[in-house]
Write a structure and sequence with these properties.
The chain has 316 residues and is an alpha/beta fold. Helix content is 43%, strand content 17%. The chain starts with 13 loop residues before the first helix and ends with a helix.
Length: 316
């Protein structure tokens, strides 16, 4: 597991450090709740800001765009309703991980002040589609990012690639790349979330998901018994498809992305997958608006958090 670094930000003893890592692992493995995905990258940020009520004409360059996005994320994680009671983890964009909240590093703030386990998105986007899938682009600076994340007290990472067609060779390549990057992550003491997303507009989503299931299970069973990883997938067409994977002792948790489903539909589908919790992004922030006052903002956020939490812990 990732452990908090030493120094002024984390003036604690080694014994407490180990206890912190154990508490994070216990929360991720066993606590009821869901993971908030607050990791929109450069490509998806303009759309997220527009939905939030900030037009592209409101900023002039990428720096201003990311500053506005950071402000939105900070507003979310500092809202009274955003706590570890229901939100057990949060996936951060790299720039958010490196940012501050009230002078405190974001990962430290999340854990200390909100009781939320911090993750960071590590992929650098996707290659062009080939063989029905989009592999992750190369990550030449990944080791440096992972070292920095571990020092900041981040628990784990997330890496996304996509699947559109039920190509055996394409999906196998996706899974092998995901596990290879996960191994690099584990060497830094962090827990990787593998995210091979089957697109909800796939012409044969169920077939893609069955192949993905089979190849993930195959690679999972090759890992050493003490390995700990997580899996983030599209809510499957066949309920409980990933149940056997979730039961494997090396799998900390299987979590679901909303994938473009509206909130109510995503929650309804999630209820039928008994060992799966949510890790929603668009469905989480879709009702939030820049123009809301703080009370309105927290009320809207709290209502959505309650709905996603309920679907994660109360099953059909």
């Amino acid at each position: 597991m990732g452990s908090f670094g030493s120094g002024d930000d984390f003036p604690v003893s080694k014994g407490i450090l180990m206890s912190t890592a154990d508490k994070m692992m216990s929360q991720m493995a066993d606590k009821g709740g869901f993971i908030a995905a607050l990791d929109q990258s450069g490509g998806s940020t303009p759309g997220a800001l527009k939905q939030y009520g900030i037009a592209e004409s409101d900023y002039s360059d990428e720096s201003q765009m990311f500053a506005l996005m950071h402000d939105m994320r900070v507003r979310i994680i500092t809202a009274p309703s955003f706590t570890g009671d229901k939100v057990i983890g949060a996936i951060l964009f790299e720039r958010t991980m490196d940012g501050d909240v009230d002078g405190e590093p974001v990962p430290a703030y999340l854990w200390r002040e909100r009781g939320v386990v911090p993750f960071v998105k590590i992929d650098k986007g996707l290659e062009a589609e080939a063989d029905g899938v989009q592999l992750m682009k190369p990550m030449p600076d990944l080791d440096a990012l992972l070292a920095r994340a571990a020092k900041l007290g981040v628990y784990g990472t997330k890496e996304r690639s996509t699947i559109r067609l039920p190509s055996e060779s394409g999906i196998r390549a996706i899974v092998r790349q995901q596990f290879a990057v996960a191994e690099q992550v584990r060497k830094h003491g962090l827990v990787p979330i593998l995210e091979p997303e089957v697109l909800i507009k796939s012409p044969d989503k169920a077939a893609c998901e069955q192949l993905l299931h089979d190849y993930v299970l195959e690679e999972l069973q090759k890992l050493p018994e003490d390995a700990r990883i997580m899996l983030k997938v599209t809510i499957p067409e066949v309920a409980d498809l990933y149940d056997d994977i979730a039961r494997d002792p090396r799998m900390v948790r299987v979590v679901a992305l909303s994938g473009g489903y509206p909130l109510d539909q995503a929650c309804e589908k999630l209820r039928h997958n008994h060992r799966m919790i949510a890790s929603f992004s668009r469905a989480l922030i879709g009702d939030l608006r820049h123009q809301m006052d703080d009370a309105q903002f927290d009320s809207a956020l709290g209502e959505v958090i309650g709905e996603i939490y309920d679907a994660s812990v109360h099953k059909a």
